[in-house]
Amino acid sequence: MAPPLTPAQVPVLFVGGLHRSGTTALARVLASAPGIRGLTGTGVPEDEGQHLQRALPTAAQHGGPGTFAFDPGSHLTEESALARPATARTVLAAWQPYWHLDNGERPSWGAGGLALLEKSPPNLLRTRLLQALFPSARFVLVLRHPAVVSLSTAAWRPQLAVGTLLRHWLLAHETAAADVPALRDCVVVRYEDLAAAPQERLGDLTRRLDVDTAVEPELFHDANPGWLEKWPGRVRTVGTDERRSIEARLAPFGYRLRPPYVVPPEWAPLHAR
Question: pTM for the complete prediction?
């Protein structure tokens, strides 16, 4: 068994994004790189670290997919009462067995090192807390078109209206965007950019993360077209004035509610390569 890790130095790569945003696909691709180790064999949904520990609330405790960001308590920062060394130790102890480290493996960032990946949707709204708990942490946040996220989430939770899901998307991402400047090391990527050129974009991503760059891009494919075919009929359930308001707020992220659905973003972190 590998010796216990210390939260102050452990190189955790946190992946976050709303449910149905492609976080699982991206986490699997990144974990295929020789310099990244993901949680495996956990027995919990999608091997998400949120389900392995009890120190931090899960998305379900805040309402679940499509609603958790509406709960103000889902946004956690370094000012939270949870920002304590005891929290970090508890969470890390719950995750460490599922990274399956050998005795000789000492995780570290950089060439020849080994980063430890954890993916959970609510990471999107707790980056600042996670950075306080794990000072060496790095972050990858994934965005996906709100139409696709809304429709695929509604397939899980049909009681949620499309307008509600669009508002949830906006609140979650605007909150996350406001937190990004406080992070020391964060990459924001769009699902659509990854799907358009997976080899190039994934190579850019792993280089920026300073890990070995060999990944398996075939694990990532574009599932958007099927959902967008259904969108024109569903978006009509949202009032005209609300659609205009939503579309104006989507502009920084480079998304529209009508064709062309994906355009160059205005938000600076999305221009970074």
Answer: 0.95
